[in-house]
Each structure stands twice: as C-alpha cells, then as structure tokens.
Design goal:
80% of the residues lie in helices and 0% in strands. With 256 residues, the chain is mainly α. The protein has one domain: Orthogonal Bundle (Tetracycline Repressor, domain 2), CATH 1.10.357.140. Helix 1 runs parallel beside helix 8. The chain starts with a helix and ends with a helix.
Length: 256
C-alpha cells in the first residue's frame, strides 16, 4: 500500500531511485515492527501453541540476535528516510512510537487491534510524503491511510480469532477474547464497511475517474468475501488481503 500513496501523490511516473528508497524504508520499518513484536511477546509466544515455533521462543534465534535484526531494520529505515528527504527523516520517529507501543496494548485493551491499523495506515501516508516532501497536501493524503486503518484493524480482528481461547486463559485483551468470536467478526465487518465507504470517497474526491469504478467494485467484493470466509483465516487473512492491496494499487495507477 505504500506505493499506492506514492502514485496518488505524484500522478505520474516517479523517479526509479525514489521507488527504491521507499521500498527499502518500508522493508526496514516492517522489520522493526515485526522484530519488536516478537521480542516483546517472546514469553507469551512460548506458551501459545500457535506461536511456540517462532524463532525466539523455539530457540532458533537468541535475544541478542533478535536485537541485531532490530537494529539492522532501524538503520535501513532511518537511512532510507534521510535519503528521501529531510522532511521524511523528521517524521520518521512517529511510526517507531507506534511500533513500540503496539505490542503492549493487548495487555491492557482490546483496542490493540487499532495499533495494527495505525501502523499500516502510516505506509501510504509515508509514500505520499516521500513524493511531496511536505504536509502542504495533507488533506488529500488522509483518505488512503484512513482506509488502511479500518481495513487493517478489521483483518487483524479476523486473525485474532485463532487465539481466542489462549487469550482468555492468558488474560490478554482482544475482541474475540473479550466479546466472543461472533461479536468480534461483526465489529470486523463494520470496520470493513467503513473502509469501503472511505474507498468510495477516495475515488470520488481524489481519483475522479470512471476507470477506477471496476477496481472499486472489485475491492468491495473482496472485502465482503474476506468476511464471508472469515472462518478460513488462512484464506481470508493471508490470501484475500494481498489481492485487496493489489486491486487498490492498480485502481490508483490506472486512474492517475
């Protein structure tokens, strides 16, 4: 989705060097986010049958190596942000704050799912700022991150249904563990409805192109299909979501 933000901002072919820097920044940021999550949750993962085979709880990787991966990802992210622009480098600590706070949220609140949504929402916003180098067009930039917020929060709730029973026993907060799976999936469906409404607004306000409509409808169908197949988390979370992301990228590309 970060490239969706890039092409939404530029409306033309961006320099290849910028595309590479945006990619490396995204890789570094994702590495930081995932590694922090694994480090913070290593004791929880050790007792969860679904996660016990992850690198840290299984002993495949020790904690020192984990911190090494974290520092490598941080270096890639910060250097890439600096090479894109001073403005992006100035904003670069903001996602890091989200990455640090998010893993702890499920110990206190079921709203932890929105931490995932917030983290992924910053991707297209970062791509937009990589092109503009300023906040002058901030209003234009907000619809795509808002879509990401609702979309990612919704699919994280679906994913969390895998840990409903474990979360209850461990005293962790998630919508499935606190409100039950059925209610959690209704909340997820509502968030995906909001995501589609925001996507419609994006097409009308920012893209304003009839050629976007088939991809808008495809994205809406995929969001519905993800909810329809929510019981099959492997399909809904790992496969349908990928197609949603590509559908939106193509929608923006053909429109601009």
């Amino acid at each position: 989705m970060i490239y969706s933000g890039v092409f939404l901002a530029t409306k033309e072919q961006p320099p290849f060097s910028l595309l590479i820097l945006v990619l490396t920044a995204a890789i570094g940021a994702r590495l930081v986010a995932m590694t922090l999550n694994r480090i913070v949750d290593r004791e929880i993962d050790k007792h969860n049958p679904r996660t016990v085979r992850r690198e840290l709880p299984s002993g495949v990787m020790n904690l020192r190596q984990g911190y090494g991966v974290l520092l490598a990802g941080l270096a890639i992210y910060l250097v890439s942000a600096k090479m894109i622009s001073d403005f992006c480098f100035m904003l670069s600590p903001i996602p890091l704050v989200v990455f640090v706070v998010y893993p702890y949220l499920k110990r206190f609140t079921p709203l932890a799912h929105f931490g995932v949504g917030m983290g992924l929402a910053m991707g297209p916003l970062g791509g937009f700022f990589a092109v503009t180098g300023s906040a002058d067009r901030l209003g234009e930039a907000l619809l795509l991150p808002l879509f990401n917020l609702f979309w990612a929060t919704g699919f994280d709730i679906i994913y969390s249904t895998l840990d409903e029973e474990f979360d209850k026993k461990a005293g962790l907060y998630s919508f499935p563990s606190r409100f039950g799976k059925a209610t959690a999936l209704k909340i997820s469906a509502f968030l995906h409805l909001l995501a589609f409404i925001v996507l419609v607004a994006l097409v009308v306000i920012s893209l304003n192109a009839l050629i976007a409509v088939p991809f808008l409808l495809l994205s809406g169908f995929l969001l519905w299909f993800e909810q329809h197949k929510a019981e099959d988390v492997e399909l809904a979370f790992f496969k349908i979501n990928i197609v949603v992301g590509f559908s939106i990228l193509v929608m923006i590309l053909v429109s601009v």
